[in-house]
Amino acid sequence: MTTARETVLGRIRDALALAPAADGAPVPRAYRTGRTLPDDERLALFTDRLVDYKAQVHPCTADRTAEVIAEVLREKGAERIGVPAGLDPRWLSAHDGEVQQDSADIPAPHLDALDGVVTASAAGCAETGTIFLDGSPDQGRRALSLVPDLHVCVVDLSSVEVGVPEAVARLVPERPTTLISGPSATSDIELERVEGVHGPRTLAVVIRTDV
Fold first, then answer.
1. Cβ-count burial of 21 within 10 angstroms (0-12 exposed, 13-18 middle, 19+ buried)?
2. Is 66 exposed, middle or buried (0-12, 13-18, 19+ CB in 10 A)?
3. Which segments of the chain are extended strands (E)?
4. pLDDT in tens, the chain (211 residues)
């Protein structure tokens, strides 16, 4: 009698026999690239996708970053805020609550005591409304942006590409990448939408339009 293991291994051998020989040649990647849009159109597309995902969008000029972040935190009643170690301190200069700098020494469950978190971002994709975080010092570890119930993410419009291939090209493959498309949401068997199960219940995106 054939075992399940033998069946699986047999199918793998059959598939390998049909595959072309590996000669070290690079695999062609014919992705469509080079798409561009004027800043206003790229901002409108990115905003439309983010809002469709139920994210809150706050465009602003760079000199109003701290003011807008403070307004968002005040509106959400967020007093105790977590930040990655490399975040620009000027961004929280207008916040009158507590700011806790994150570190690997803080257990992830303790992050749940924060009212929210503020991070920067690595890149964005307008076509899909996706924000990319890569663990850089101004973005922090993945737990920081997943555990607190509010994530205020600052995105420079200059880092937002039209399509996925262009956005991915901005990333460093060796860095840990987190893709964010709206607040955390899932559905049960009756398709009832539930938010905040696997990440922040609220995503506020501050888009700096002149950077």
1. exposed
2. middle
3. 56-60, 80-83, 98-101, 116-119, 123-125, 130-133, 150-156, 160-161, 178-180, 185-187, 193-195, 202-208
4. 678 898 999 999 888 887 766 666 676 777 788 899 999 999 999 999 999 999 999 999 999 999 999 999 999 999 999 999 999 999 999 999 999 999 999 999 999 999 999 999 999 999 999 999 999 999 999 999 999 999 999 999 999 999 999 999 999 999 999 999 988 777 767 777 777 667 799 999 999 999 8
**Can you give the length of the chain in residues?**
211
User: 38-45: long-range contacts (C-beta < 8 A, 24 or more apart)?
Assistant: 39/157, 39/209, 42/126, 42/157, 42/160, 42/162, 43/126, 43/157, 43/160, 43/207, 43/209, 45/126, 45/127, 45/162
